[in-house]
Amino acid sequence: MSVARDEFRAFFGSFPTAVSIVTTVDTDGAPRGFTCSAVTSVSIDPPLLLVCLDRSARSLAPLLSAGAFVVNVLADGAQDTARAFASRSERKFTGVRWQPSAVAGGAPVLPDLVVGYAECTVTRSLQAGDHWIVIGRVEGVAVFPRPPVLHQRGVFGVWPGELAASRG
C-alpha cells in the first residue's frame, strides 16, 4: 500500500531540518538559486554531498549545465531570503549580496546570510520520482559562528543549542 502525498509531507514536516539556498549560474552567467531542505552528506572520503530538487525547478537545467553549485546553509535573520528563494520569482537575487565561487564555476556564495557554505562540482545526477538527486564533490567550505535557521511544519525557527551551550 502506498502512502498518500499528504501523509508523506506530514511525516517529513514533523521534524526540523536545516534550510539552505542552493545556487548556481546559468549559461549567461546569471545567478540562479532555490531554497532546499533536502541536503545531506554522502561521503567524507571523498567529500560528497547531495541535494534534491523538483524536476520542474527552474534552477535544475542551469545547475546541471554549469556542473557546479554552492550549498548556503542559512543563519538566523535569513528567513525572508529563504521565502524569496522558495518562490518562482526571477528576481530572487535583488538586494542580496553575493560573491562568485572561485571553485564552483562562479556559483553565488551568500556569506552574510549563512552558518556555512559548501562549494561543489557535480559528480553525478539521477532522476528519482518527481525529483533529481545531484551529488557534488565538496571543493571548498567555510563555517561561521551563527545560529542556524530550522524549518518544521511550515514554520521557521532558530536552533538554540549553541546559545544554550555557551550559557552553561
Provide the descriptors you would attach to this structure in a database record.
single chain, 168 residues, alpha+beta, Pnp Oxidase, Chain A, 3-stranded antiparallel β-sheet, 4 helices, 43% strand, globular, disordered C terminus
Short description:
By secondary structure, this protein is of the alpha+beta class. It has four helices and twelve strands, in the order αβββββαβαββββββα.
Commentary on this structure:
The protein is of the alpha+beta class and 168 residues long. The protein has a single domain (5-167), classed as Roll (Pnp Oxidase, Chain A). Helix content is 18%, strand content 43%. It contains 4 helices and 12 strands. It has helices at residues 5-13, 60-66, 79-86, 161-167; strands at residues 17-18, 20-25, 31-36, 39-43, 48-54, 68-74, 99-100, 108-109, 114-128, 131-143, 149-152, 155-158. The strands form 3 sheets. A 7-stranded antiparallel beta sheet has the order 3-2-6-9-10-5-4. A 3-stranded antiparallel beta sheet has the order 1-11-12, with no helix packed on it. The chain has a two-stranded antiparallel ribbon with strand order 7-8. β4 and β5 form a beta hairpin. The longest helix is centred in the N-terminal third of the chain and has 9 residues, at 5-13. The chain is globular, with a radius of gyration of 16 Å. Residues 163-168 have low confidence and may be disordered.
Topology:
Blueprint (H helix, E strand, L loop, with lengths): L4 H9 L3 E2 L1 E6 L5 E6 L2 E5 L4 E7 L5 H7 L1 E7 L4 H8 L12 E2 L7 E2 L4 E15 L2 E13 L5 E4 L2 E4 L2 H7 L1
Antiparallel strand pairs: 1-11, 2-3, 2-6, 4-5, 5-10, 6-9, 7-8, 9-10, 11-12
